[in-house]
Amino acid sequence: MPTIPAPANPVSPSLIATLPGRYYTDPGIFRREQERLFEAMWMCAVRSADLASPGAFRTVRIGRESVLVVRNRTGELRAFLNVCRHRGARLCTEEAGEVRRSLQCPYHAWTYGLDGRLVAAPNLVRMPDVDRTAYGLVKVALREWLGYAWVCLADEPPSFEETVVGAAVERLGDAAAIEHYGAERLALGKRVTYDVRANWKLIVENFMECYHCATIHPELTEVLPEFADGYAAQYYVGHGAAFGADVKGFTVDGGEGFGRLPDVADEQDRRYYAVTVKPTVFVNLVPDHVILHRMFPLAEDRTTVECDWLYAPEVVESGADVSRSAELFHRVNVQDFAACERTQPAMASRAYREGGVLVPTEHHIGIFHAWVVRQLGGAQG
């Protein structure tokens, strides 16, 4: 089995090696990740409710590809490569929009139905031998879960149940635990998009540990006091970090939040759970809302993160002020991403050529590192 390269100087049993610095700066390694991870695994693309009506579409960057997700005439979501089959022009140039019945290339007006089939083109009637299905848009596999459309560019996608749903089971210890929050029934209360000047793996590593929490997250450790001891919510299977004794809700000041989601179990009340779905999704669960991060790695040193705060529909429809609720994790995001951006330049330093070290409360990050190396086919020279 591929192993993480050892540092030049042996480390003590309390410390284990990280990935070498080049894993965060080398464009060749990033291209390998695009091929072996982002274009081979299930990626969370769009929130299904954002495409409410037939003809609504959104384009997202998945690996090196632009992917078009659209709701068709029968109300189903479909995904295609955002490339016209004629001369390769970008079909939809906007990030989001809505069409009436078809998608038309702005270059030569080749036109496709919402099912991806070629339906019209200038002089197409004079070319009766053109197979309109064969020259339709290239389809991308799509599954819906937690109210989001997940896509996979692989010709033979891996098992969704094992690689996506299985991540929640592995973390929470119960296949039904995440379903209690009913994310697919929730409404979007707030969305923030962050442009992070850091490698995507630094963001994942940061999310997986809480050794830094006492240092940079004063608001979070007030609400979740055990985080001040350095153990992240993901350290133990099935564990949810308990709210502080005087904390009333998962809010920036610990004050009242909203009513508990209807199916959240008693043992899940007043607790925070975190799930990492590799490679690029974080799911945060609290009694009255769900926070979901989607990462879109753009380069070896740049990542877009889209974060959604989801609430019971009646909360959003009532016009309730969710700012105190959303502000807590927004501050956490800003603090975390600033830390990652402070770290990114040092990945190219000779001081980090052989990597760094992980203390015991961070050792589980080593599992993530080993997974990355394994997915890439072994240590990258």
Are there runs of 5+ residues with pLDDT below 50, and where?
Answer: 1-8
Question: Largest sheet, order of strands side by side?
Answer: 2-11-10-5-4-3-6
- What is the count of DSSP helices, taking H or I runs of 4+ residues? 8
CATH class placement of the largest domain: Alpha Beta
Helix share, percent = 10-25%
Do you know the CATH topology of the largest domain? Answer: Naphthalene 1,2-dioxygenase Alpha Subunit, Chain A, domain 1
N-to-C series of helices and strands = EHEEEEEEEEEEHEHHHEEEEEHHEH
Structural domain count = 2
Mean pLDDT: 94
Give a quick set of tags describing it.
381 residues; Naphthalene 1,2-dioxygenase Alpha Subunit, Chain A, domain 1; Rieske Iron-sulfur Protein; seven-stranded antiparallel beta sheet; 8 helices
Please give a structural write-up.
The chain has helices spanning 27-38, 160-172, 200-208, 213-216, 218-223, 313-317, 323-343, 365-375; strands spanning 16-17, 43-47, 56-62, 65-71, 77-81, 96-98, 102-104, 111-113, 118-120, 139-145, 148-152, 187-196, 241-242, 271-277, 281-286, 289-299, 302-311, 357-358. With 381 residues, the protein is of the alpha+beta class. Helix 3 crosses helix 7 (323-343). It is globular. It folds into 2 domains: 16-40 and 174-375, Naphthalene 1,2-dioxygenase Alpha Subunit, Chain A, domain 1, CATH 3.90.380.10; 43-152, 3-layer Sandwich (Rieske Iron-sulfur Protein), CATH 2.102.10. It has 8 helices and 18 strands. It has a 7-stranded antiparallel beta sheet, with no helix packed on it.
